[in-house]
Design brief:
Helix 4 packs parallel to helix 5. The protein contains five helices and nine strands; from the N terminus they run αβββαβββαβαβαβ. It has a single domain, classed as Cytidine Deaminase, domain 2 (3-Layer(aba) Sandwich). The chain is of the alpha/beta class.
Amino acid sequence: MRKSWDQYFMDITKLVAKRSTCDRAFVGCVLVNSDNRIVSTGYNGSLAGNPSCDEIGHTMRDGHCIATIHAEMNALLYCAKEGISVKNCKCYVTHFPCLNCTKALLQAGIKEIYYLNAYRMDQYALELIEKNNIKLVKMEEGLKD
């Protein structure tokens, strides 16, 4: 049976997550436009050109690894660097976005967020999503790889 677009993009998102260089959370993000074309991908990792957590360990503060740039931010920042619009795009992400990533996604013009894992779901992030009429979809894992 042919996969839905949503399942197709989430499968790609899970593959992108495997590139993560912070073993505290293997997170992937895929941004998709209204033509069902991928405009960007991102995964958890250190600043480009800097050693990763996998290489030198974690830089922890308040229970978080601060050396890591989140997958959603990496996907958005690539678009910013390359002049690619994400207005009205969909975001597929393996883990529910943190508050800062949620704010960045909404400010950038993302209109739909699809996620697999309900990880540290911030109440204010949920309020922002609802207040701004963002479609939020919790996807099921589906078939295993």
